Amino acid sequence: MLRGRDLLIWLTCLAALLLLYVGAQFNPVAFLLAGILAPLPVLVAGRRLGSRSALLLAAITALGIFSLKPGLEIIWENLGFGGLLLMGVFLTSLEQRGLEPPRAMLVTVAAMCALALTLILGQALYMGVSPLTVLAQKSGEIMATVRQVLGDTAAGSTAVLPGVSQADLEAMVQRLLPGLVVANTGLVAWLNVILSRQIALLLGWGKPEPPLCNWTAPEWLIFVVLGSGFLLLAPVSWVRSLSLNLLLVVGLLYFCQGVAVVATWFNRFSLPRFMRLIGYPLLFLNPFFFLIITLGLMDLWLDFRRLHQPRDA
């Protein structure tokens, strides 16, 4: 049973989850934050209180949302938020079992993507339509979400991307939806693991963990990049779509490696914390995002962090 400070931490995490959910109903920026940070309170509670407390936190939050309007409609409307809570539970449980963070994230992403695929197939079966029809519907929902976040919901508004019609953009999103789902799930899991580790470090919970800035993508992954690049030249449309989806997922892995290189440089030069708070968010913006992916690729040959040099060098 939770008492004292542990109970306060648990209640704070519960309040943070409810605040994220309520804010997402009224503000596009809060909606975006909820779609990224919802697993964080579950992870923080799990790091301090254990996986059972994290599971209880996610369950109480889900029951609280369901009690607002009991029925299948509210469950369907909040599947995304519920999936993020489940992601936090998965990550916490796997880390409590001793899995290293990269492996825990990989297993979690695989489980979440398998669950998403099952839901799409189940929805298609229930509606009596093909899975491609459901994918087209999901791509339309993604575009509506993008316009909502950008504040571009008025009728007759301009396209999200200049020079690209809404129909062409929705067709492109539909082609890339599998890769987008995998990449987005992986990015959210990665961000929340890093943030939860930093919070635990700042609050002095347990011993310092090995830094994630030493993580590196498997060397054989470069052959996936090269193969996917060559497949873009194939005359078959579904092969080109497959290669683009593969490049999206692999690009995320090399982005994480590029960020690890930047983090190593920040540590090496003892960059002040306030400058890191400014620098890290900039890495996710264009054109820095693509530069960081390139940096991660170059690290394979140039070894910026000197991870593969002999110890006596």
Notes on the protein architecture:
26% of the residues are buried. This protein is mainly alpha-helical and 313 residues long. The chain has 2 domains: 1-149 and 166-209, Arp2/3 complex 21 kDa subunit ARPC3, CATH 1.10.1760; 211-313, no CATH class. The radius of gyration is 21 Å and the shape is globular. The chain has 13 helices and no strands.
In short:
The protein has 313 residues and is an all-alpha fold. It has helices at 4-24, 28-37, 39-49, 51-68, 72-77, 79-96, 101-127, 131-150, 166-202, 221-231, 237-268, 273-282, 288-302. The protein has two domains: 1-149 and 166-209, Orthogonal Bundle (Arp2/3 complex 21 kDa subunit ARPC3); 211-313, no CATH class.
- Series of H and E elements: HHHHHHHHHHHHH
- Strand % is under 5%
Kindly report the CATH topology of the largest domain: Arp2/3 complex 21 kDa subunit ARPC3
Head-to-tail CA distance between termini: 53 Å
Assigned CATH architecture of the largest domain: Orthogonal Bundle
Domains counted in the coordinates: how many? 2
Q: What class, by secondary structure content?
A: mainly alpha
User: What is the CATH class of the largest domain?
Assistant: Mainly Alpha
Question: Spans of 5+ residues with little confidence (pLDDT < 50)?
Answer: 152-158
Number of strands: 0
The helical percent reads over 70%
Number of helices: 13
Morphology: globular
**Mean pLDDT over the residues:** 85
Assembly form of the protein: single chain
| Main sheet: strands, sense, barrel | none
Instruction: Supply Rg.
Output: 21 Å
